[in-house]
Automatic annotation (TrEMBL):
Gene3D superfamilies: MFS general substrate transporter like domains. One of its GO terms (molecular function) is transmembrane transporter activity. The lineage of its organism: Bacteria, Bacillati, Bacillota, Clostridia, Lachnospirales. GO terms for cellular component: plasma membrane. This is MFS transporter. It comes from Candidatus Eisenbergiella merdipullorum. It is a multi-pass membrane protein. Pfam families: MFS_1. It is found in: Cell membrane. The keyword Membrane applies.
Length: 429
């Protein structure tokens, strides 16, 4: 009886109800996210170490980041045009195949700077499908469901993190390089499978069909020229610009934390490599707890407050890492716990914030423009973070704290989004 009661109560959970009433693209994309999430999280804690172990220096790692981000700007800029002309579904498939399946195949063979750079550049192709994927996920969904849908996407990725210890166990037995080569090969296969499932079970969105028909006889050059009218409109929209500023800051902080955390805790704090796979699990467990238990209770809370609180937690977490004592694992665990709590509040709202502030009729091109701008503005910081790390491994994280404090100021000036209304009907700043 107690089990039946718990199951009935679980069925009434807002996230379960959202997934139950969602059909088509949102449900399919949420359910297949682990095909990307599982191999990604098996690899992510060791990706930088994989390069470093094969002789790639801190500065070279930062250089690869900056060069690949420069290429990503190019792909992101054209992502909106291709999404409109080829459709949301086909463009998503294109990016998954070339940006992940083929790139991971090259990563599995990489053993020098140039191969790692080639793989990173090819992975930049994935930026083409980012715009298409967002459109495919949300265009036929209700605006008030956006935070819930993004929460589900994050949950799918977080569940995949629990597979991370497998890579740690293998690395402990066989070392980083051979294990990562196999994992990258597995990643390539799962992304081919993800592409095939998208082809079979997803459908083009209503807005996607409209834009594809409208742009069928319009040349790419003409569509590119139309940006001269679109860009000024975006620049004049204060709501969009503030959302973009927050997005840029979070992109930079995530890039720095992802790429230099493993080096920091192993090379400066003296933590064993075998613990690297455990940190993502703790992060995922805490984020899941917050997303499933606490997040639904915040639906009645103003949109900005959880975002601001999450940024505060981010800054506190990084401060703990900066002042951590060498050899003390407890400091790193505390960092991961506080960072995860901040991420549970920030991540879904950051993604929804942009979508709630843009015109639905121009979603593809505006998303592409925002993504290209985000990467372009962030690209110099890959090299800059590498340079800081080569001087003192604490400095990239000091820089991250400053960025989080800046984001908190910006969020404090953002007007509450109008949920349930179309973006073009929202109040202008």
């Amino acid at each position: 009886m107690n089990v039946k009661y718990k199951m009935k109560k679980l069925g009434k959970h807002p996230l379960i109800q959202l997934l139950a009433r969602s059909k088509g693209n949102p449900r399919t994309l949420v359910l297949i996210e682990p095909l990307w999430g599982i191999p990604y999280n098996l690899i992510a804690p060791f990706a930088t170490l994989y390069m470093y172990t094969q002789g790639i220096t801190d500065v070279q790692i930062g250089l690869i980041l900056s060069i690949s981000m420069f290429i990503q700007v190019f792909f992101s800029f054209f992502g909106g045009i291709l999404t409109d002309k080829l459709g949301r579904k086909f463009t998503t498939m294109l990016g998954d195949f070339f940006g992940w399946a083929v790139a991971c195949l090259i990563w599995s063979l990489s053993n020098n700077f140039w191969l790692f750079l080639a793989a990173a550049i090819l992975n930049s192709f994935e930026q083409i499908n980012q715009t298409a994927w967002y459109c495919l996920l949300i265009e036929d969904a209700e605006p008030e469901d956006l935070v819930g849908l993004y929460t589900w996407v994050n949950i799918g990725g977080l569940i995949a993190v629990f597979f991370a210890p497998l890579s740690g166990l293998f690395i402990n037995s066989y070392s980083v390089v051979p294990v990562l080569r196999v994992l990258y090969l597995v990643f390539s296969v799962t992304m081919v499978l993800k592409t095939l499932i998208t082809f079979r079970f997803c459908r083009e969105t209503g807005q996607g069909k409209i834009r594809r028909a409208e742009t069928r006889k319009v040349s790419i050059l003409h569509m590119l020229a139309e940006y001269r009218h679109l860009i000024p409109r975006v620049l004049k929209d204060k709501g969009v610009m503030k959302a973009v500023a927050v997005s840029v800051i979070l992109y930079i902080t995530n890039m720095v934390s992802t790429n230099f955390f493993s080096l920091y805790v192993t090379q400066r704090l003296g933590i064993s490599d075998q613990y690297l796979a455990l940190f993502p699990i703790l992060n995922a467990a805490v984020m899941l707890l917050f997303m499933v238990v606490i997040q639904p209770r915040m639906n009645s809370v103003k949109f900005r407050l959880p975002l601001w609180c999450g940024l505060t937690l981010y800054a506190l977490a990084v401060s703990v890492l900066i002042f951590a004592l060498v050899g003390h694992l407890a400091f790193v665990i505390l960092y991961v716990f506080v960072w995860a709590a901040g991420g549970a509040l920030v991540t879904p709202r950051k993604d929804a914030l942009i979508q709630l502030n843009i015109n639905p009729q121009e979603r593809a091109r505006i998303n592409a423009l925002i993504m290209a701008s985000t990467i372009a503005l962030s690209s110099p910081f890959g090299y800059f973070a590498g340079w800081l790390s080569s001087r003192d491994r604490r400095l990239p994280f000091v820089f991250v704290v400053v960025l989080f404090l800046t984001a908190m100021v910006i969020v404090g000036q953002i007007r509450e989004p109008k949920l349930g209304q179309e973006s073009n009907d929202r109040e202008k700043e």
